[in-house]
Amino acid sequence: MTKLSRFLKLPISKSQDLSAAVLAYTTTIGRKFRVESISFKFSQAITETITITKDSKLGANYDTVLRNKSLIAETSFIYVPERGDEMFNIGDELQIDCTDANGVGIVYVEIKLSEG
Fold it and tell me: What pTM did the predictor assign?
């Protein structure tokens, strides 16, 4: 299998104007997948917190925060999971949150996934 054919589909993209609300996005994949990377780009330098969580099919007691990153005057951030954190089973989903404490800027997110 070539590396190109491993990708589940085109990257998932999501954006949110942080002056209007927080970014709170959960995937709806519904099958096994791996997280290759999650890229964040901001319309301006922002100071916010990003949280990436494995939303477990077993319920909230089993959810796992994969990365919590406080950004200070940042314009971009990329998350590449550590070995073992990238695998999601059927029913597990990926939850991505970004605070809007400063109420400015737009966050653009690109999620790259591959077959589980």
Answer: 0.89
